[in-house]
Design a protein that fits this description.
single chain; 202 residues; alpha/beta; Spore Coat Polysaccharide Biosynthesis Protein SpsA, Chain A; two-stranded antiparallel sheet; 6 helices
């Protein structure tokens, strides 16, 4: 499939107190870990930030395009919109930049089941994972309409496009510990991620 990946790196990291995506887990930054999991099957990697910036460790990477929000201040939905507008691919994998334990087989599975759908995302019990999801270009117009109406909640998109939920039992085939969805918000999260990466916690 002709796939691009959109990485959302525009968060303000308020709880951590500084830009978290450059924090290291093991010997690589969070954003480098995300890129490493999708580089082999992504045509382009679009990194969306809240304002123009560069990440020095990524300079020279042939697939990476940097983009700043078209609709500033609209949160994750605004970042998704920006990435989808810029992307040349019909299907796009959208990921948060602070997920160090992405599972490549699970991501590939989600892409495989995306045919005939516009929004493919995990659903674990009553929780959705819209920043670990596949979006088609058909999402652009409804997201733009939502943003212009001041509606910034991603799950409201369910009402306007064809949605495919990846249920818990599907996720568990590939990632029974569900570490794919572990993200970094606090110093405690960061330390726990480093312990997991060292194998100190199973």
């Amino acid at each position: 499939m002709d796939i691009s990946c959109i990485i959302l790196a525009g968060g303000k990291s308020l709880r951590l107190g500084h830009d978290k995506v450059l924090e290291k887990v093991g010997n690589r930054s969070l954003i480098e870990l995300v890129i490493s999991r999708i580089d082999s099957f992504s045509k382009d990697i679009i990194i969306v930030t809240a304002e123009e910036r560069t990440f020095a460790p990524l300079a020279g990477h042939p697939k990476i395009k940097m983009a700043s929000d078209i609709f500033p201040g609209k949160g994750s939905l605004g970042g998704i919109y920006t990435g989808l507008v810029i992307s040349d691919s019909f299907y796009n994998l959208v990921l948060a930049a602070d997920m160090p334990f992405l599972n490549e087989p699970l991501l590939r599975y989600m892409l495989e089941v995306s045919d005939d759908f516009d929004f493919v995302l995990p659903r674990i019990n009553e929780f959705f994972e819209p920043l670990h999801a596949v979006y088609s270009k058909n999402c652009v117009a409804p997201i733009e309409s939502m943003l212009k109406q001041g509606r910034n909640t991603i799950i409201e998109l369910f009402d306007f496009v064809k949605v495919r939920f990846v249920e818990a039992e599907e996720v568990d085939r590939f990632d029974p510990q569900r570490l794919s969805f572990f993200n970094i918000n606090t110093k405690e999260d960061l330390e726990l991620a480093r312990k997991i990466a060292r194998g100190a916690i199973e």
